Amino acid sequence: MKWLEFSDTIEKNREYHERYHKAVNNLVRKKILKLLKEGKNYDEIMMALKLNENNFEYHLKILEWGFCIERDKEDRKKIILTKEGEIVDYLGD
Fold first, then answer.
1. How far is CA 12 from the centre of its chain?
2. Topology of domain 11-88, CATH
3. pLDDT by residue (tens digit) across 68-87?
4. Cβ atoms of 20 and 84 closer than 8 Å
5. CA-to-CA distance for 6 and 81, rounded, in angstroms?
């Protein structure tokens, strides 16, 4: 989903922002975004944060739901940082 799908009404706009804020207002997810920006891959991030696969997938789903990342349909371990996710440089720890 992209911004354009949420920009036509105030309610959709509000939902977009709520989802985005929920995604980035978590220390683990901020670290995931920073590691992605550094070029780390799925396995490297999971190991660096000492997360099991279920916990890591939970955070990735929230980041995807919040427009911060996109995932390859064929290779779910391939994670792409979106423009929204690039805000990581401006997020505090």
1. 19
2. Arc Repressor Mutant, subunit A (1.10.10)
3. 999 999 999 999 999 999 98
4. yes
5. 19
